[in-house]
Design goal:
By secondary structure, the chain is mainly alpha-helical. It has helices spanning 7-18, 23-30, 34-42, 50-60, 64-68. The protein has one domain: Orthogonal Bundle (434 Repressor (Amino-terminal Domain)).
Length: 69
């Protein structure tokens, strides 16, 4: 696996910051662990599950498509 962050990781971080959310706040809104958010944003998790991605998209108020592009 490359160390480069995935598109979804970059988008989550960008959207989270645009909304003024901390990683902890986003994890609570999405009902997933804080550690999972950290791992996705850092690139440790390259491809989050569809369920996780959907929860994050919903918490950020965007579509799944918006996270992927």
């Amino acid at each position: 696996m490359s160390n480069e962050k995935s598109t979804i990781a970059k988008n989550i971080k960008r959207l989270r910051k645009q909304r003024g959310l901390s990683q902890d706040k986003l994890s609570k809104l999405a009902d997933i662990s804080h550690n999972t958010i950290i791992k996705i944003e850092s690139g440790a998790i390259q491809s989050p599950t569809m369920d996780t991605a959907h929860k994050i998209a919903k918490a950020l108020g965007v579509s799944l498509d918006d996270l992927m592009k």
